[in-house]
Automatic annotation (TrEMBL):
Coiled-coil regions listed: none
Binding partners and assembly: V-ATPase is a heteromultimeric enzyme composed of a peripheral catalytic V1 complex (components A to H) attached to an integral membrane V0 proton pore complex (components: a, c, c', c'', d, e, f and VOA1). V-ATPase is a heteromultimeric enzyme made up of two complexes: the ATP-hydrolytic V1 complex and the proton translocation V0 complex.
Cited InterPro entries: ATPase_V1-cplx_f_g_su, ATPase_V1-cplx_fsu_euk, ATPase_V1_fsu_sf
NCBIfam families, per the entry: V_ATP_synt_F
Pfam families to which the protein is assigned, alphabetical: ATP-synt_F (PF01990)
The family this protein is said to belong to: Belongs to the V-ATPase F subunit family.
Protein name per Swiss-Prot or TrEMBL: V-type proton ATPase subunit F
Protein's organism: Drechslerella dactyloides (Nematode-trapping fungus)
Keywords per UniProt: Hydrogen ion transport, Ion transport, Membrane, Transport, Vacuole
Organism domain of life: Eukaryota
Recorded topology in the membrane: Peripheral membrane protein
Any GO CC annotation of this UniProt entry: proton-transporting V-type ATPase, V1 domain
GO molecular-function terms, A-Z: proton-transporting ATPase activity, rotational mechanism
Function text: Subunit of the V1 complex of vacuolar(H+)-ATPase (V-ATPase), a multisubunit enzyme composed of a peripheral complex (V1) that hydrolyzes ATP and a membrane integral complex (V0) that translocates protons. V-ATPase is responsible for acidifying and maintaining the pH of intracellular compartments.
Length: 122
């Protein structure tokens, strides 16, 4: 079980996704950019030309942050780094797969639902 200290400072959502998804969430107000020499953002836009290692680095950077409570990732993007998503077991930030405008959600691919099915013996 998570202790209060493990989540009390986690104030932000983060997103890794296509331009439409990230733009929509930024318009909804989740955007956060820090200033200074080590400026960080809580979002990463993926397009068809984005290299997998950049997506992996963004995922690693966002899950390592202590101020992020939930990381939203488009399911079609998560497929590109599926092994990292499946290996990620920390409670915070919670990693949730979401659909994209051009890519419908497939519950058979969702790592969280796979874990739930395993718990219930399905």
């Amino acid at each position: 079980m998570a202790t209060p200290a493990s989540y009390k400072d986690r104030n932000f959502l983060a997103v890794i996704g296509d331009e439409d998804t990230v733009t929509g969430l930024l318009l909804a107000g989740i955007g956060h950019v820090t200033t200074g020499p080590s400026a960080t953002r809580n979002f990463f836009i993926v397009d068809p030309k984005t290299e997998t290692d950049k997506i992996e680095k963004s995922f690693d950077d966002l899950v390592a942050r202590k101020d992020i409570g939930i990381l939203l990732i488009n399911q079609h993007v998560a497929e590109k780094i599926r092994y990292k998503i499946d290996m990620y077991t920390a409670a915070f930030p919670a990693v949730l797969e979401i659909p994209a405008k051009d890519h419908p959600y497939d519950p058979e691919k969702d790592s969280v639902l796979k874990r739930v099915r395993k718990l219930f013996g399905e």
